[in-house]
Amino acid sequence: MREGLQLRVKISITGIVQGVGFRPFIYRIAVQNGLAGYV
To answer: Does pTM surpass 0.85?
Structure first.
């Protein structure tokens, strides 16, 4: 991606994801790929 160019993407995951480490898992993947945002 060119410097200064930003892309916004909204991803929705539905279902029962609490208590299975979903947020830490997604956070690690985001950090590994240089992504920013929130879960």
So the answer is: no
